[in-house]
Amino acid sequence: MLILVRHGRTAANAEGLLQGRLDQHLDDVGRAQALAVAAMLGEVDDVISSPLMRAMETAEAFGQHVTVDERWIELSYGCFEGQPYAGVTTDVWARWYEDPNFVPDGGESLVALDERVGGALEDVLAQAGERNVVVVTHVSPIKAAVARVIGGSHDFAFRSHLSHAAVCRIQVRAFGPVLFSFNETAPTM
User: Fold this and answer.
1) pLDDT at position 25
2) Which of 40, 51, 66, 184 has the CB geometry, 3.0–4.6 Å to 59, for a possible disulfide?
3) Of 81, 149, 96, the residue nearest 120 (C-alpha)
């Protein structure tokens, strides 16, 4: 089983900022979420993580060796990183929605994200057919991976929600991967 886990909350998340590649630590809530999701999932065979601190800190909650895979890094929002979601104009959101090749200044397109995550997904699915593999990553890579599995398009990113420390399970079957669950969360104290 492939288990995709979104990292726990950071201060930037709490403030409603686009993080992208900003490298922040988990806040207190995020650390509690990381512990809760690790406890919910229990023992797993392999843990892979994005190189960003918030993902690494969430992955470390599993208490075992973490393999870093750069392909699971978050989408680069370029000039919008660190900006409030509300500060991005509706014109920009519309352009991103309508054109998956749109690249903000210094950023990355949804097409580039999809290609990068597609290769990582292909590699990890081979592993997840025999083992329980956790990949701790970010909202955009998870949505891109799930869209590939269900045969969705780029607009899936705009039509789905993932909570912090959410789990999406993809089961590998004889005829291919199947979305088993989406946006599962563990209760935190």
Assistant:
1) 98
2) 66
3) 149
